[in-house]
User: Which sequence fits this backbone?
């Protein structure tokens, strides 16, 4: 199975990125995680992206906050699909990172998830890998069924309590 490459702009993004890691581990999907900044270590971020396809990665996740250029910088250096996670920071509640990540120029796409949306970033990465992996696809179907069951159980509990 191809690996998911995860890169974050700072170790301070790890609490968000951990949700993506946990999701990939729950699906038994191989990954590699790095701290490379588009601004502080641009060469390392570029090289990771440039070599990713040859090194067995199938999809990339890039998480960054503030002037969040990391996902775009990764996307500029690979034809692998890149998923961007805008991370919330103190001053602008993540809107800065959201706009910096999502507003890519035509030709270099970044699939941007919600602010701090690391679980969905991992799920989207898994969905991309599942296009060519039926076992992974079945795990996704099973998870969707379990999620739906949990919602219906909550509906039953709440309707029993309030709909009298
Ligand atoms: C971004 O700046 C990082 O992705 C992080 O979200 C933010 C703050 O970084 P630190 O100052 O905490 O290292 O580049």
Assistant:
């Amino acid at each position: 199975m191809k690996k998911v490459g995860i890169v974050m702009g700072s170790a301070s993004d790890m609490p968000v990125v951990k949700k993506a890691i946990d999701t990939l581990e729950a699906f038994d999907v191989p990954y590699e995680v790095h701290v490379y900044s588009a601004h502080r270590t641009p060469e390392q971020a570029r090289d990771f992206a440039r070599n990713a396809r040859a090194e067995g990665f199938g999809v990339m996740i890039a998480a960054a906050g503030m002037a969040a250029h990391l996902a775009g910088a990764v996307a500029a250096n690979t034809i692998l699909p890149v998923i961007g996670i805008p991370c919330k920071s103190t001053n602008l509640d993540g809107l800065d990172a959201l706009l910096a990540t999502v507003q890519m120029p035509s030709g270099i796409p970044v699939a941007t998830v919600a602010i701090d949306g690391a679980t969905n970033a991992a799920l989207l990465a898994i969905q991309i890998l599942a296009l060519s992996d039926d076992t992974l696809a079945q795990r996704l179907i099973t998870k969707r069924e379990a999620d739906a069951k949990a919602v219906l159980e909550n509906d039953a509990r709440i309707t029993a309590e309030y709909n009298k």
